Amino acid sequence: MTDVFDHPWLGGLFADPEVAALWSPEAQLAGMRAFEAAFSRALGRAGLAGGTEEAARAIEGMGFDMDDLRAGTGRDGVVVPCLVRQMKAAAGDAAAVHKGATSQDVIDTATAIAMRDTLALIDARLDALEQALRELDCRFGARPLMGRTRMQAATEIMVADRIAPWLLPLADHRARIAQARPRVARLQLGGASGDRRDLGDKADTVAADMAAALGLENPPRAWHAMRDGVAEFAGILSLVSGTLGKMGQDIALMAQQGIEEIELSGGGTSSAMAHKQNPVMAELLVTLARFNATQLAGVHQALIHEQERSGAAWALEWMILPQMAQATGRALSAAIRLAGQVTRIGSPE
């Protein structure tokens, strides 16, 4: 059984291939490979190991035995022990690979790279949606529309008043992304218990070197058991999809027969009722917003990491974050498409 994002036909509605690629196994391996290559180089430049450039190049050029990684994860609960063994075999010098790092450093840094790249993609799509909604406002904003409170007719407003709650939060979301990026896109480097002890007085030098190489922030210590940055990332995803869900709910209600305050091209058809044009993209926005709101509780559960490192809470993030990211990306692409389907907004004449 596959989830809706990877499903052979449900994926036609839910999938976002561009976001999925950022969280794919290939992208995760690329992030972990980048960590280990940068770590080896940083060890060499700090004088903590020899042969590190050769090791880094071997890591960058090697292939992986995926069956071994799967079996090792089932045994160890994490992929990194097997991954590192394969890397050491490829490098031919165990001292130049992973020495002073731990599994969580590798996986969390790869996750930070995925979160960073996801935020960049979401920011770009928010910009595109903002432009699309401004265009709608220019075309239809001055037209009259019945205002509704508690789903009952209230007083007459303008179409611009209905569009404003769809449009104005987008700039706030973009500001949140800019503000949160340094707290989300952070190197993870702590070693066995998060204190970087195995790197001695070169720990800060190694961390600064790696952060620069990977394009990540360099926090003052490991965040193994401090998951607020991960939760903030998930919170942004839910806020964005929630705004889009409000837009979708409004449009679905406006499109009701008998209300007909909006006309859309390219609606969904019914197998039983040929006269129907279902507002599929609007409905999808509501579904994805509710999905992310539900998943956010799981990420907040994953804030509770016991002592210096957790296995249970940590693994919960792996299950939730990729789906939340894809749901948000898909919501944005659907909202942009939906804005382009609008042919009229306003009270019917």
Based on the model shown, name its key terms.
12 helices, mainly alpha, two-stranded antiparallel sheet, 349 residues
Walk me through what this model shows:
It is elongated and about 80 Å long. 63% of the residues lie in helices and 6% in strands. The relative contact order is 0.13. The longest helix has 38 residues, at 103-140. It contains twelve helices and four strands; from the N terminus they run αααααααββαααβααβ. It is mostly helical. It has helices at 11-14, 17-22, 25-45, 52-61, 66-76, 80-91, 103-140, 159-184, 203-214, 228-254, 280-301, 312-341, and strands spanning 144-149, 152-158, 262-264, 342-345. The strands form two sheets. A two-stranded antiparallel ribbon has the order 1-2. A two-stranded antiparallel sheet has the order 3-4.
